[in-house]
């Protein structure tokens, strides 16, 4: 279980990725200066035997960050976004107990495809540079399709 004392108060747990993320998360998000910011507390279960967040967990984080951040930035309704391609450059380790945050920038959106890039940081240190190509899939029902996670501007 997460230690909620280490979660910044402006972040809210978000429901993404079905049971996989429910088991491997939780993930959190906020809107900061109108930009979607996703966060996660690195717990023991996310780490390798050396107390460093596993690259697979950071990949999962990026795989959720990029399309959701782009949807918020583009003002688009929530959609299912199967991953076509995901590239990651691991620049620094994310240690046990670290709070990480990710932001992204959509590069291009067509009727079928989304190209997006992003950064995952701990404080001011860049941990991961990510870029991805996603397919626009079916819409996901939501009470507020343009703000499916009910985030408030901070």
Give the gist of this structure:
By secondary structure, the protein is α+β, with helices and mostly antiparallel strands.
Q: Roughly what percent helix? A: 10-25%
Q: What is the mean predicted local confidence, pLDDT? A: 92
Order of helices and strands: EHEEHEEEE
In terms of DSSP E residues, the strand content is 35-45%
Number of alpha- plus pi-helical segments: 2
CATH topology, by name, is Thiol Ester Dehydrase, Chain A
Write the CATH architecture name: Roll
The total of beta strands comes to 7
- Pick out the low-confidence regions: none
Structural class: alpha+beta
Give an overview in words.
With 154 residues, this protein is of the alpha+beta class. It has one domain: Roll (Thiol Ester Dehydrase, Chain A), CATH 3.10.129.10. 18% of the residues lie in helices and 36% in strands. The protein contains two helices and seven strands. The chain has helices spanning 18-24, 55-74; strands at residues 12-14, 27-32, 35-41, 83-90, 99-109, 113-122, 125-135. It is globular and about 45 Å long.
Quick tags:
Thiol Ester Dehydrase, Chain A, 154 residues, alpha+beta, seven-stranded antiparallel beta sheet, 2 helices
Draw up the topology in text:
Blueprint lengths: L11 E3 L3 H7 L2 E6 L2 E7 L13 H20 L8 E8 L8 E11 L3 E10 L2 E11 L19
Antiparallel strand pairs: 1-2, 2-3, 3-5, 4-7, 5-6, 6-7
